[in-house]
Amino acid sequence: MKNTLKKAALILVLFLGGCSSITFIYNQFDNLFPWYLESYVDLDRDQKQYLDELLTPFFQWHRVEEMPKYAQIIGDLELAIDNEIDIESIALITYNVEESWARLEDQMIMWVVPLARELSDEQIAKFIQVLRTKTTQSEKKLLLRNDQVYQSDSYKSLRKNLRRFMGSMTKDQLELVKITSKEMKRTDGERIQSRKVFIEKLNLILQREQGWEERLEKITHSDELVDENYQSTYAYNTDLIQKLLVAILNSRNDKQDKKLRTQLSKYKSSINSLNK
């Protein structure tokens, strides 16, 4: 569930393939999300209707309160690239994005709680089993990679995302990406383990004994769900990527600068148009 929530946040923040997709997907998300949820648990007709009722205030909150914050994040980056970028500026933008993820998680949990009250024990059991199965599938896919493949995947991912905003990259810039990907530490094993711990804790909470609603509302803030070493490695990799962004942005040429500014402007305009 936690990775699912973060995927939703990513979709709704910045990282869609094209700015026109932001408006389209966001306007369809209230229809798409129940369908996505049903890949985890089968809902009857009354439960589907109740889910629709729960989602209405959630999307209203997100459109009114959060979307302007996403536009502000883009605006902050637009201002930052007017001068030489420093690590503090990128770190602050990263922090604001992560805070957006956290708020989205909290709000989604708030409407999941009343829906969870309506699920049968059988539905809960199937939901947990689906989570376990999907985690096992991810584990097999991710952990089969050796370190060389992991570094190659990291390189391709970083390059793809940078190209999306800046277009073709220079030889020196690609070399910086390659160096960063080689220095990044693996987190896939620890991430899978963290997810397993999360699922088992969720399973206990959803036995729905006294006080379960409060425990569910706080589940995304449970430090024991994330291994200390995983947190440290995540912070290390984040620092590497931030330094890479600083180096790439400060080495961009005129063509890359024009594409970057155009992309950011389109994203911001598209997000702002959702509130008109």
The rounded Rg comes to: 20 Å
pLDDT < 50 runs, ≥5 residues: 1-32
How many structural domains?
Answer: 1
Number of distinct helices? 11
Order of helices and strands: HHHHHHHHHHH
Please identify the structural class as seen in this structure.
mainly alpha
Q: Total strand count, please?
A: 0
Strand content: under 5%
- The rounded distance between the terminal residues' Cα atoms is 32 Å
What summary fits the major beta sheet?
none
Q: What's the rounded overall pLDDT mean?
A: 82
Assign a percent range to the helix content: over 70%
Tell me, briefly, the overall form: globular
Describe this entry's structure for a reader.
The protein is an all-alpha fold. It has one domain. The protein contains eleven helices and no strands. The two termini are 32 Å apart. The N terminus is likely disordered.
Ordered list of secondary-structure elements with their pairings:
Layout: H1 2-12, H2 19-37, H3 45-80, H4 87-118, H5 121-143, H6 147-166, H7 171-183, H8 188-205, H9 212-217, H10 228-250, H11 254-273
Give me a quick take on this structure:
The protein has about 280 residues and is mainly α. It is about 80% helix and about 0% strand. The longest helix has about 35 residues, at about 45-80.
